[in-house]
Design brief:
The chain is α/β, with parallel strands linked by helices and 581 residues long. Among the domains are: 135 residues, Cobalamin-binding domain (Rossmann fold, 3-Layer(aba) Sandwich); 111 residues, no CATH class.
């Protein structure tokens, strides 16, 4: 993927764009917005400024030899006529003419300018980034020609580089309102991926209608009962910028659901956990051990069918106040599992602001640790796609404050150069997002992206770097202990993708969280505390931070069938052959 991106960028290198506000026009905001996008796409832009006289414009075209010339005029419509007559009279004398002419103005001005039939594209202001990118890539007639903006995830990411693609979650309790909402969102051209939010009956009982609880229809999302329902969602998105669709893996019948998703909505990527969405968190009918087994089998199916995979697991530990080290270890483990099961494109969802009491800097350190560990797995057979999002619990109920939280969280997220930005609608703490909430949220995020891409911000300081390194060491240590949890020769073959071994991580309490207290599958015995913005395991008796090695050593000593030598509890212990076993 990276190779293709580099080649695509080089194809636009040294292409020049010359832009001017002609006549007496001094409205320059639109020109600067356009140049910002064009510059990021690799064009060399020159702006002649406001109120540029025609003779100067012609002279600069001859000197600069641009590929594209853009004119802007946003004053009285009729006064544009003599300006353009003068322009084209002199333009025809130019020997090396630009390949493209663009014009920007008010809708009334554009109506007059179109009569000249000389311009390749028109802008009235407020065009979506998708529209501008399409025009700059010679795809301005993309919908008229019934062609498609890339309709698979990897191509879509490459098409929009260097900008990240935008994803948002949507699903109302009423099916018809959801269909209309998808059409509204698609036509707004503010995002690239609509994540369908299905109700609980869909996720758990789609193939078991007799087990569906009718009173809970629409609880948590849109009720989807037939393949025709899915096909209607697919048809609804085929307008505007044609966003991709994706949906959760469900909580049972995983492969049957996956096959149906591909037949209907062309699921952009799979979103499936390892340890969650089962009886442990009350969101699925399977036991923990059985769900792990089926999740692994489903990930392998997705890999065999070339579907990108997101293992949406690690942040669930942080959502339940687990120490940061467990969340980082689970992300590393998720990448290892994906790679061992044959996944080619692994989507790492980095949920920021979780737990919500984490500080921005220590939360960022945790994300950096996750990212750095996953990057160690990348090779020609395994690509990492970075997806960022704001933590849901971090949003205040006050909607104006929630908008501020969305903006500041997004700014931090962009520091890791994500491929996907998952926009969590600012309204979520108040109500399920409606189309207008999603559109507004995406516009807020888009503004942050546009502004940040003109700067080179660096949030990493020594404090963040040290916390990142500490978390990496702890997470590596935890994951490197996994082979020590095996009990049979069969488990020894590949313990990182053995459901019995993985189950022991939770059963023994190596992976644990305070909010799992009194859970039949997890211990819920761990105590944690936020210290200087970071979440640590905490010894209540001695009122101190517990090192993860010390905590886990105490756990292992209580397991009669597990014997681990003392040297493996030292800081220096590393099991370096994770991907070779």
């Amino acid at each position: 993927m990276k190779k293709n991106i580099i080649q695509h960028s080089k194809s636009r290198k040294n292409k020049k764009i010359l832009i001017a506000c002609i006549g007496q026009c001094v409205h320059v905001a639109g020109a600067y917005n356009f140049m910002s996008i064009a510059t990021q796409l690799g064009y060399e832009c020159k702006f002649l400024g406001p109120a540029t006289q025609i003779w100067k414009l012609i002279s600069e075209i001859q000197k600069y030899n641009p590929e594209i010339v853009g004119l802007s005029y946003r004053l009285t419509p009729l006064t544009v006529k003599p300006l353009l007559k003068n322009f084209f009279k002199n333009f025809e004398k130019i020997e090396n003419k630009p390949k493209k002419l663009y014009f920007a103005g008010t809708s009334e001005v554009i109506n007059i300018v179109k009569n000249f039939n000389k311009f390749d594209a028109y802008f009235i202001g407020g065009e979506s980034k998708h529209r501008v990118i399409s025009i700059l890539k010679d795809e301005k007639d993309i919908l008229k020609k019934n062609l498609e903006i890339p309709m698979d995830l990897i191509s879509r990411i490459e098409w929009k580089k260097p900008y990240p693609i935008i994803r948002a979650h949507f699903g109302l309790s009423n099916f018809e309102e959801t269909v209309r909402g998808i059409q509204i969102i698609a036509k707004a051209e503010v995002l690239d991926v609509i994540s369908i939010a299905p109700d609980q009956n869909t996720q758990a009982n789609y193939f078991h209608p007799d087990e569906q609880i009718q009173e809970l229809s629409g609880a948590g999302g849109v009720p989807l009962r037939t393949e025709e329902d899915f096909l209607k969602l697919h048809k609804a998105r085929l307008t505007g910028n044609r966003p991709l669709l994706r949906i959760y893996a469900g909580t049972r019948d995983f492969i049957k659901l996956a096959e149906m998703y591909q037949r209907t909505i062309k699921n952009a990527w799979a979103a499936i956990p390892i340890f969650w969405f089962n009886q442990m968190d009350g969101r699925g009918p399977l036991t923990l051990k059985e769900s792990i087994k089926q999740h692994l089998n489903t990930i392998k199916w997705y890999a065999e069918n070339d579907v990108p995979v997101e293992i949406n697991d690690p942040h669930h530990w942080s959502l339940r106040d687990a120490p940061d080290a467990i969340a980082v270890a689970d992300m590393y483990l998720s990448g290892i599992i994906a790679k061992k099961l044959g996944v080619k494109y692994f989507i790492a969802q980095y949920m920021f602001n979780t737990p919500p009491s984490s500080s921005l800097d220590m939360d960022f350190a945790k994300i950096l640790a996750k990212d750095e560990l996953l990057l160690t797995l990348v090779d020609p057979s395994f690509s990492l796609i970075k997806q960022v999002r704001t933590g849901l619990a971090s949003f205040p109920i006050d909607l104006n404050k929630a908008k501020g939280q969305l903006a500041v969280a997004t700014l931090i997220q962009l520091a890791i150069k994500p491929d996907i930005v998952h926009v969590v609608s600012y309204s979520e703490a108040s109500h399920a997002a409606r189309p207008e909430d999603i559109i507004e949220s995406c516009n807020i995020v888009d503004q942050v992206i546009n502004t940040s891409f003109t700067s080179k911000l660096n949030f990493i300081d020594e404090k963040i770097r040290k916390r990142k390194e500490d978390l990496i060491r702890e997470a590596q240590w935890i994951i490197n202990l996994i082979p020590c949890l095996v009990k049979t020769n069969e488990e020894q073959k590949n313990p990182w993708i053995n459901h019995k071994v993985l189950n022991r991580l939770v059963d023994y309490g190596i992976f644990d969280a305070p909010q799992l207290k009194n859970n039949q599958f997890a211990l819920g015995q761990i105590k944690t505390k936020i210290i200087n913005g970071a979440c640590y395991s905490w010894d209540i008796k001695d009122q101190k931070i517990i090192d993860e090695r010390e905590r886990i050593k105490n756990i292992i000593e209580k397991q009669p069938n597990i014997s681990i030598s003392e040297d493996k509890f030292q800081k220096e212990f590393f099991y370096s052959k994770v991907m070779n076993e």
